[in-house]
Write the structure tokens for this entry.
Amino acid sequence: MTEQALKALLDSMTLEEKAGQLVQCNAGMFIANELAITGPDGEPLPAEELCRVMGSVLTFEDAEQAKALQDMHLASDPKQIPLLLMLDVIHGLRTTYPIPLAMGCSFDDDLMTECADMARRESSACGVHVTFNPMVDTARDARWGRILETNSEEPLLNSRMGAALVRATQGDDLSNPENVACCVKHFAAYGAGEAGRDYNGVELSERSLMQDYLPAYKACLDAGARLIMPSFNSLNGVPSVANKKLMIDLLRKEWGFEGIVISDYNAVGELVNHGIAADMKDAARLAMEAECDIDMVQCAYYQHLADLVRERTVSEATVDAAVMRVLKLKNELGLFEHPYHGADEEKEREVYLCAEHREIARRAAEESAVLLKNEGILPFRKDVKRIALIGPFAEETRLNGFWSRPGAERYTVTLPEGIRNLLPDAELNIVRGCGANFEDTETAGIAEAVRVAAGADVVILAVGEPEDYSGEGRSRAELSLPGPQMQLIREVTAANRNTAVLLFNGRPLVLTELTETVPAILEMWYPGTEAGNAAARLLWGEANPCGKLSAGLPRSVGQYPMPYNRMNTGRPKPLPDDRAVPFSSCYLDMPNLPLYSFGYGLSYTSFTYESLITSERTLKENGEIQVTITVQNTGNTAGKETVQLYMRDPVASVVRPVQQLIDYRKISLRPGERAEVVFTVREEQLRFYNMEGREVSERGEIRLSTGYADHLILTESIEII
Ligand code: NOJ
């Protein structure tokens, strides 16, 4: 459709029809399905009426439903404006790849691209027009259950992974039925909720917001994301969906965003709960004035927008601009000509869980696992005769994470299946031992686990956090392994030291006692469909662990918030970090540093960092230099290493972080092989926000280092002149 035709269409619409374009309903309102709704639902409304006027739908199941919804709507809409169909495809549709936090541990933008590409193929076949992805909220507190949905605590890693996902999902041309539009979320700083509680208010300095939280959203918009979702939380006193400073001054004016703003689930209506709107009508006004285009669920806009315009409280021009943005996206997706877009049942059968997709998911699961500890017992020998597989996750199928699509567990390759695929002749004894829920207190099964462990050549302890303990509305105050799992681990490890722990969880956990107890720990996160195959291949060395932590693991919940790029203080604690130093910034009862820092992860081989050389000693404004880091694989196995580049600005006009990641690259090295990794460092990467809020770099020393957070090595200085 031409721009002119779109304009004519808009001009022909009644106020109710316009308001309808700005409303999104749950597919469950029209088609019975089992999909969970993630928040309070709106007032019940006559379904036929809603179906006729509404502009978009979320949360449907498959191509058949997608087509049925579109048909149902078009059969009754006199204007023949197709529906936009949206779905949360967060880390795969039918073939599930690892949770985003795990994907961050791969430090591999290309792998993210491959995974997103696979999800795009499956989503488009399912009939998805828009995915509510990527989620790029910086998260520095693992009490927050949604930390699993972000790639990292680290803004650069989050930005690069998010942007890679957007590019792979949207492609170059949205009218191509295989491409899907992205909605970046949750704008802004949703991850910084007070006390780690979901939906909680956020109080954040302007500088921290700009430097740690905003860059990832901006990177995804720069990569072309067509939609953005304001966050549920209030930010410095104003809920995002009504936050004009954020949504208009920053997003529309400063960043020039021309796409669609869609509220989170009932977030417009929740302005009443926040206490900034008197009622739903007031809420609709506030959100519209902040240029929130679509109200997810039908409480506020559907019921009140038209009246607000009639009463001249909201200008029709504002509503028209919002409707136009919606019509434009529909047009760009080619929906007026092809309302089903890519929905195709045959294609679904072809691509869902196909061999190629499983292979990508397996590789992703392998590359995002982090080997936290290994006292020489891994990889296990392939000639083992008796394997004991113990723990509440031994036969678990729910290894996909909160945001996997419903039913994902039906397709999970379990641990026993993965082990048998690799070692069909070994004897495998499986004992659950105990449960992993908060309420589980039963320890009677531990004796049997100990007996089986004692008679085994190797023991795999599969422990973790139940899948629904992380995710939306899933904050925790304690981050220990729930239930009697620690007791199981203690007793089993005492019976057989040849024990490796496999961890399945959606957030950093406190592993202080675990680390002291067991000889080997492999953090698997929620690896997705290929969980069992990936775990077995890692345990037996068919794959070499190469993940690095995308968020540090604390020693105690009391350390939160615990960003790796913490600010310097006037009384920094002197190193080593092993005891309290009076009147320094420290705890009396534990070290300051995490148990395992950001960027940490072991391999079955060893890498030696030989040198870090800068091409110049000085750097001018807008200039660049090269930094060459030489790394050698000094072990006996081929492996991958993520070379990380950090900066520190030791003297500046405002306090700067003690370390900041400015680049990373993952490389593959054969035994004995050496590589020179060349990073280009641009002056603009070293900038920060000064007292006036301007992004600047200042003259003086900048230190460049490699290694990983809190363990920086080979530091060299350059000078900004
Ligand atoms: C609520 C969540 O916060 C958001 O991330 C999601 O996209 C919507 N519900 C839609 O399911």
User: Anything to note?
Assistant: The longest strand covers residues 624-633. The chain has 20 helices and 26 strands. The radius of gyration is 26 Å.
